[in-house]
Amino acid sequence: MDVLSRPAEEFDNDETLEHLWAAKAMEHSDIYFNVLCSVDTRWLRLTQHDDLIYNHFRQDFPDMDVKYINENVLKNNVNKSRWRMFCEKFKNIVEDYSFGTLLRADTNGDYSEQNTILVPRVQFYAIEIARNREGLNNEVKKRCKCASKLTMDSQEHTQEVAV
């Protein structure tokens, strides 16, 4: 009997695998956020297929505002169907196209429990490539530099007072 034809109730989620997935997803989000804070994102390439992904994304979702993603709108029945068709276009093009990936809902925030949505990898690519090309992720870089400078200034000030 083919294992895929058996009822889902016969299978349990392996907690170890779930923890490994969560660790990998968090590692990916940390690396990506550090990259956003380091480069001019308008020139950042996430895959060798960025142009194709972006063109299909803007063709299929021409009016989608990617600055803030409302999870309920993103995952409602109508959009869920549209996104499924979009993602399937990349099944044989983008490696791990359907792998669960963490997406920031608001470009003004970092990865946090309140600002993170779980999406398929190619959906993450589509939205983040659009954010990068449309200059929305460069705000992160400005805030990171400001935060770093403020931290350094306060540390220098603290060190001066302590001496």
Automatic annotation (TrEMBL):
It holds the Pfam family PBDC1. Residues 17-141 form the Polysaccharide biosynthesis domain. InterPro entries: PBDC1-like_dom_sf, PBDC1_metazoa/fungi, Polysacc_synth_dom. This is Protein PBDC1. GO terms for cellular component: cytoplasm.
